[in-house]
Automatic annotation (TrEMBL):
Superkingdom assignment: Eukaryota
Gene3D superfamilies: Ribonuclease Inhibitor (3.80.10.10)
Pfam families, A to Z: LRR_1, LRR_8
SMART domains linked to this entry: LRR_BAC, LRR_TYP
InterPro entries per the UniProt record, alphabetical: Leu-rich_rpt, Leu-rich_rpt_typical-subtyp, LRR_dom_sf, LRR_domain-containing
Entry annotated with the keyword Repeat: yes
Name of the encoding gene: Lrrc57
GO cellular component, one term: cytoplasm
UniProt keyword annotations, A-Z: Leucine-rich repeat, Repeat
Protein name: Leucine-rich repeat-containing protein 57
């Protein structure tokens, strides 16, 4: 991609606050973007071959949305955590194994997509994020869900297609969690905390494709309480 094309994109972005350059085979984050660090609200560099997000990402202090789906990122810089206005972060289809230590400082974050990475656990940093609505951690290598999940503020947590065999009972204490997706994991029925059914806010529990038959779930204590929440929610949206 030539400099003139990039220049045209930069000029448009200066007017609109949106820089979108997807599927162009970019191998690095365009450094020229930092000239617009106070203009940009949205950056979308999905479907490229970017291996590294440079520390200068921390300068985009007005950024609300950042998408880098389907790149080759193996790590994220700590500087990313300076983006106090960032509400949406899409990093599906990369090679991420963990999140920066300071990730909990992304205080405005509402939507986080990390599907198709190499995470092995639910990152503890997520528990500090007060405005999280949706967290997508599907298609990773997560094997267990730790106690810190109890502080997660998300409304929807997607853990489909992992290798989860253990879940902390603390998950039933999530104050806002309504939708929990656990399809295609390695869960035995005995490893599913019954308090999810009897004593949580969860009104949609998706557990197809685990090591038990769904009809066995219906025999568990608390299932009727879960169904009450499920039905009430359905009526609300009907």
């Amino acid at each position: 991609m030539g400099n003139s094309a990039l220049k045209a994109h930069l000029e448009t972005a200066q007017k609109t606050g949106v820089f979108q350059l997807t599927g162009k085979g970019l191998t690095e984050f365009p450094e020229d973007l930092q000239k617009l660090s106070s203009n940009l609200r949205t950056i979308d560099l999905s479907n490229n071959k970017i291996e590294l997000l440079p520390p200068l990402i921390g300068k985009f202090s007005f950024l609300k949305s950042l998408a880098l789906n389907n790149n080759k990122l193996t790590a994220l810089p700590e500087e990313l955590c300076k983006l106090k206005k960032l509400e949406t972060l899409h990093l599906n289809g990369n090679h991420l194994r963990q999140l920066p230590a300071a990730f909990g400082q992304l205080s405005a974050l509402k939507t986080l997509s990390l599907s198709g990475n190499q995470l092995r656990t639910v990152p503890t940093q997520l528990s500090g994020l007060r405005h999280l609505d949706v967290v997508d951690l599907s298609k990773n290598q997560i094997q267990n869900v730790p106690d810190t999940v109890g502080e997660l503020q998300a409304i929807e947590l997607n853990l489909n297609q992992n290798q989860i065999s253990q879940i902390s009972v603390q998950i039933s204490h999530c104050p806002r969690l309504k939708v929990l997706r656990l399809e295609e994991n390695c869960l035995e029925l005995s490893m599913l905390p019954q308090s999810i059914l009897s004593d949580s806010q969860i009104s949609l529990l998706a557990v197809e494709g685990n090591l038990f038959e769904i009809k066995k779930l219906r025999e568990l204590e608390g299932y009727d309480k879960y169904m009450e929440r499920f039905t009430a929610t359905k009526k609300k949206f009907a």
